[in-house]
Amino acid sequence: xxxxxxxxxxxxxVAVKEVAAFLQAQLGKIQQGDIETKSLNSLVxxxxxxxxxxxxxxxRKIIPDAVFLTEENTVEQKQGAWQWIIxxxxxxxxxxxxxxxxxxxxxxxxEGEMVVGVVHEVNRDECFSATKGxxxxxxxxxxxxxxxxQLSESLIATGFPYYDFDFLDAYLNVxxxxxxxxxxxxxxGSAAVDLCYTACGRFDGYxxxxxxxxxxxxxxxIVREAGGHVADFKGGDNWLHGRQIxxxxxxxxxxxxxxxxxxx
Length: 264
Hints:
The chain is α+β, with helices and mostly antiparallel strands. It is 36% helix and 26% strand. The strands form three sheets. Strands 3-4-5-6-7-8-9 form a seven-stranded mixed beta sheet, sandwiched between helices. A five-stranded mixed beta sheet has the order 11-10-12-14-13, sandwiched between helices.
């Protein structure tokens, strides 16, 4: 069966917005007893699990023969030509503490390449989307990365290590350099949001390590379709499964890689 990527994107947006309404309705209702710890500082609640189940059910109707890679493992994880990569709530810790930065991230991979990405930031009701070769959009309007050429004029996003401290010294060295050579460094607590804010020009660049595919699959495609560059810390293309990513406009990514290649 042949599928139209724009049609898939539009149907995915509908599904994601239904889950966003559920998340909004549950905000502030989490009790301490609802929180499970999967690993050090990696939290999950019934909201994550129900959201994922809702997404899986809706996405199965769009592409019946697709398989899934999901954060909460509510469905069997398989490999296939069409694969949905889902984070039902990127920014769970923010959600639990009612810090208003969290999102739903849904990416679609076809034969090893990302072809559809949808990220919905719930609090501002902002839906970022992209299809391969079709451009990137925020609530239906075209978006693009910045044209900033110098780090001194850049605002950079990152994620602080919260469980994998093997590269902490290298990370802090890069962080120190960026603190003193950019307009500032921001840590929002959601990789999907960081990528989308980079895609629409709010950030000039973004980098982080110890990430999973569902954190970056959709957002990275959105950055690419917005004219940006996405790479691992060595400048290669192993960002989806390599647990590290740098993204932004091509000039800023090149400058960030000059620092990341040394320490990592």
